[in-house]
Amino acid sequence: MFELLSKISKFVFIFLIYYFLLNFLRIMIADLKEEKTHPKATGFVLVEENGKIYPLFDINTIGRANDADIIIDDPFISSKHALIEKRGSKMVIRDLNSTNGTFVNGKRVKKTIRLKDNDQIVLGKRNFTFLRGERLEAPR
Amino acid sequence: MKPHADIIYKENMAIIALIGIIASLVLSFYNGTFSPIPVYGEMIFIAIMVSGYIFTNLLFPQQDPALILLSSFIVQLSLIMLYRINPYSAERQLIWYGLGVALFFISTLASKAWVEVKIGDFFLFVITALLLLSPLVFGVERWGSKSWIVYKKISFQPSELAKITFSLFLADSLKDRKIKNPLQFFGQILVILLLLAAARDLGGAMIFYFTALAVIFAATSRLDIAAAGMLMACIAGLVGYKQFNHVKVRIKAWLNPWEDVPGKGYQIVQSLFAIAEGGFFGTGLGLGHPDYIPAVTTDFIFSAFFEEFGFLGASALIVVYLLLIYRGIRIALSINNGFLSLAALGITTFFGIQIFTIIGGVIKLIPMTGVTLPFMSYGGSSMVMSFVSIGILNGIKIRASSGESNG
Amino acid sequence: MVKAMDKLERNIKLIFLVFSILFISLILYLTYFTAVEREELIQNSYNRRLWEQEAKVIRGSIYDRNGKVLADTQVENGVKKRIYEGGEAIGPLIGYSDEVLGRAGLESILNGELLGIAEQDPVTLLRKKILGVGERGNDIRLTLDLNLQKTAYNLFQGRPGALVALDPQTGQILALVSSPGYDPSTIKQDWDAVSKDEDKPLLNRATQGLYPPGSVFKVVTLAAALTYNPKVETETFYTPGYIKVDGNIIKDADYLKPGNYTLSSAFRYSSNTVFIQIGQEIETEKMIAMAESFGFNRQEKSDIPIAQSTFPKPSIVKKDVEMAEAFIGQGKILATPLQMARVAAIIANRGREISPYIVKETVSPLGVVKAREPSASSNQVISEDAADKIKELMVEVVKNGTGTSAAIKGIEVAGKTGSAENPHGKAHAWFIGFAPAQNPQIAVAVIVENGGSGGAVAAPIARSVMLQYLTDEK
């Protein structure tokens, strides 16, 4: 009796165990999809003069346009003004042919340049600081 | 949590329960006539698991549910095997599971709200050292190593807790991505290893060593240190082989257990026989012979499991462990804080190395060492501390999700 | 700062990769283990699970070709006892199966069948369960003739040696004797004495003993000569009683006078020197090929483990001498008695290949009979013509030559004697032959270690065995 039960249940167990694993596979796939639609924060941020913090992702278009990643409503900022993106382990910025130009630490950005911690970025008349997110943990 | 994922997690919890219920029903007929005890035990298990899951989900919506589920899955299998081998041990394991889940909850809370206390790495080192020293001073020797402390009827292995403090120590020392004071740092690690060696816990020493290596490499990216570390490990192995008889015995038994089957090779040979008997689908629950295997509730529980659940069952278990590691790594990657990331890595690495070591040992891929299989082997300290460990991982995950990475 | 975080990330991913590889290699190793190593381990005699199975099952019986019991399991008051019939004559062949001593002989080789664990497909299992016969293993019927086996064994009178008797038309083994033997019924009590006996009764000399065949090998040399150098039939060879090869002198037996010999007379009187000359007329490769097609250098797959008989590939330096020795069955050439019986059987079978086997069929407790006879080979080792010629010459050996002690009144016996020089003392006495010559029913090979003259010592044993078998047949 027991032997029979055991021999049958054997297959049931195997089935259940693998179904369990399958479920985790589904979760992993869902996670991956999630990463695609919700890009991971890079850990870097753009802090505006007035204190507003914009978290930076892999690709960030900055401008007045409604579909920009970071929307700044300012007449001196073009609809697509600048682009900050992740290149390897660094963040880089380039100007998207804006009317009033993009400036990093006072210098006008002509081609793509790398951003360093604490760089001062000026778009039109707005000032931003480029920072590493970790610094902004709950102050003690 | 995303609703879709939530359903899958709940489904998995149901699967664990189902496996347990079926197994307990089968086992209730083990002695011929129906005995309701396994079913009662299963009910208690399910109660603990479900309440643990719901409770933690309620209070920590951003937690990683996979942690408690994966570990509960393994514990479920453990309880099934232990009941079948020795019902009394299953009873105790269940109690420790309950304790473990409770501590899981507490340690999640603690590490979530953790003040970045400036304990400092030196203090962490001292705690670790003291933990490892204590059994040497007032502990007892069991199965060749003096790493147990016994009080009244309760025995505890401080080295299990030391793993956690050691991970924190490593993380704190290396959080700035470089070794502040190499001499002191390596010296501290050496002390820890020596304490373990003094307790004759060479398996433990090995795990601590490789974990340290991994975390150091992760933090500093210094391949040269990693390579040197590997080399030193090989040398240590060779020296150990020549100098220490019982290392020699272990390695010889690994290379050719057939030389002395009734003596030195007995354990591993019996393990291999059990695994051979298992085949693809296993013999079926209760139809194997764990009574032929020595130390079957602790070191060789994997072999007993393989015998009854076969290659398919055992491989699935290995994958589940890998998933646990995966979740731990994922947590380490998700947090931007160097200290926490390295701590998560350390804890996860401890698990990973330990699991690989014990499974590799019982299947004769590598020599046997006296380490246990987390969540599966019979043992209170291991179970409880493992839950504390994943509780810490959980806490870190919550901090990562609540946006600490963006300030 | 920027870099550091990503490096850490990368390193952590790397570490995960390492873990994945480690864990996957665990699974891969287990796959290999389950596919390959598993079988061996299950049958390992240290594996208590096998003994558990044994305890549950009644071990099957072993019978000879006429249904006589050789090994049987009897149950008395719930206690199982394995009994054997045949005494010392059957020990090295049948062997034993014991928890303490382990397993040997056919009891070991056929263990799976005897316990019924060889095939366990679910349907058979179910049937067994329903019919209530699950607890018995398979019975095995051998081709062996127990009476013949006992007679042959007694003729040795405890002297070390072996005898193999085959049915040349089918390859069935009629007798497989190794002397001295042991009685499996008392092996447990006798273990100390038997295992320490200098004459090694536990060894099965018939299948595992490797000896220089001596002059009985001339049958193969003869076969090679007739096949590759037919003119040898009409040649005349002169011998002064010795021959010099590469500075080594090989002599004929004392009773051989120097003079002229034909193939027939040289064979009849077993002249070494003439046969070396004959052999030298055959290309070395062809000689080796002929030996190999008779079964030398072949790793046999059979019911019983058979040691490999070797015909050496000569070294470059001492080629001539080594080949010369090989032609007369001396030097590095080694043969098991079974192999020499096969040689005789091939000649008896008119040159057709034969595969010796000892298990006739297995009978399951449900009554299912499975024949184990290998399919007859139609391979011609030598032409029928050549075989017939050799047979004629072998008949002459028994009629007028060195093998007259094998003659049986009223039956034509074919044979060849041999006295193999060996470093351990007197020459080994060999005899191979078959009878009746025109329609052979039995082929034998006999060796008496250090017995001296094949004609005087081995031939009479062969004679008695053949006589009993042929008269019993009638």
UniProtKB/TrEMBL annotation, chain C:
Q: Which domain of life is it from?
A: Bacteria
**Gene3D superfamilies for the chain:** DD-peptidase/beta-lactamase superfamily, Penicillin-binding protein 2a (Domain 2)
Specify whether Membrane is a keyword of the entry.
yes
All copies of the Penicillin binding protein A dimerisation domain together span 59-140
Membrane as a keyword of this entry, yes or no, is yes
Transmembrane stretches in the record are 12-35
Supply the alphabetized keyword list: Membrane, Transferase, Transmembrane, Transmembrane helix
User: PANTHER family attached here?
Assistant: PENICILLIN-BINDING PROTEIN 4B, PEPTIDOGLYCAN D,D-TRANSPEPTIDASE
State the name under which the record lists this protein.
Peptidoglycan glycosyltransferase
According to its UniProt entry, this protein's organism is Tepidanaerobacter syntrophicus
